Amino acid sequence: MSQRSQVRVRKYGGSSLATTGHIERVAEQISQVCADGLSAVVVVSAMGATTDQLVAMVSEITDHPSGREYDALLSTGEIVSSALLSMALHKRGVEALSLSGAQAGIKTTAMFRDARIENIDIRKLLERLPDRGCLIIAGFQGVNENQDTTTLGRGGSDTTAVALAAALNADTCEIFTDVAGVYTSDPRICPLARPLLDISYDEMLEMATTGAGVLHPRAVEVGQDYDVTIHVRSTIDPESAGTLIRKEALMEKERKARAVTHQLKVAKITLRGLEDQPGIAAKLFEPLSDAGVSVDTIVQNASVEGKTDLTFTVTPNLLEEAVEAVKVAQTTLGIAEVITNPDLGTVSVVGSGMTNSPGYAARMFRTLTDSDVNIDMISTSDIRITCVVRSEDVEKSVVALNAAFDLGID
Hints:
Layout: E1 7-12, H1 20-35, E2 39-44, H2 50-61, H3 67-74, H4 76-91, E3 96-99, E4 106-108, E5 117-120, H5 122-128, E6 134-138, E7 141-143, E8 149-151, H6 156-167, E9 172-177, E10 198-200, H7 201-209, H8 217-226, E11 229-234, E12 243-246, E13 259-275, H9 280-290, E14 298-300, E15 307-314, H10 319-328, H11 330-333, E16 337-350, H12 360-370, E17 377-381, E18 384-390, H13 394-404
Parallel strand pairs: 1-2, 1-9, 2-6, 3-6, 9-11, 10-12
Antiparallel strand pairs: 4-5, 7-8, 11-12, 13-15, 13-16, 14-15, 16-18, 17-18
């Protein structure tokens, strides 16, 4: 197993592989790793907007594609990237081999579109890993017990990479993207946002689940479970420091609020006149779960004469399915009215140092009030405060909060 310590695990995202020119640049970076006497396992996403294009093709054919065929189609984007990158490495004299998720021994659950990795056959990988060479693994995919191709959900290549690093007992998984690391806010919205030197798993997980698109939440969970440090780096400027995601942030511990995240589009469903009785929540949310609807913020009002109102949020693309699931149970649950609002978003302040420090919620609410932003709902965790606001107010809320919590460029 000494070979494992000599393996570098990297992942390159779609923006880093957008064109053949981009692929050539990535091949040059990997060839330098191999020239240093190391072997590399590299996970790749589909080139640029390839996955979006494939999804668009599906919608032109059918509104209800088979899950099996949907995954079979979407997995091809990563296979194209892996083969082209392998060819680019061959041109540079680097021994490289491209593998699909199935060929790499990535075993998943049976669920199509959102499978989970269950096991990776590391022996198979190590047998095929060239000395001072490279395996190029198609990310985002695996194979279930029926040998059908499955996909891990959008952003799943991050999870593939971190899971491979864990299985190979690597200390670090390098995630290469088109930005310089994890920022305090989305730099496309807030130009004064700055990259973080490091951040804890818990903080990154909250950021990822509240809109920070730089890393998939499941990848953070795997990193935390197996103590794999995740190093987010820039493909454009590989010498920059990037951001280390690890058990505990060490470099910026004095900062209690670490980041402001956002979601531009969130849908809200309000159920009025719900019978307030034991088991009512289970009877409501079990049909939603069966319909594949993930629920986020939940607020229930105090009971009045045995009736209550309950509000929850979902992603807009699941609003129709959520309403249908609710209506199936409407009579049984005594729901008088179902009201929807698809034009909302969220803004969140994240930081483990906020847990035992008063005043952060008050500062957030005052900042939004001064920015003429109405708060529709509030949700909290130990290290996060989230406000649901109008979608049109999300971007100015991010900018205002980034300044209020001193998260901009020093």
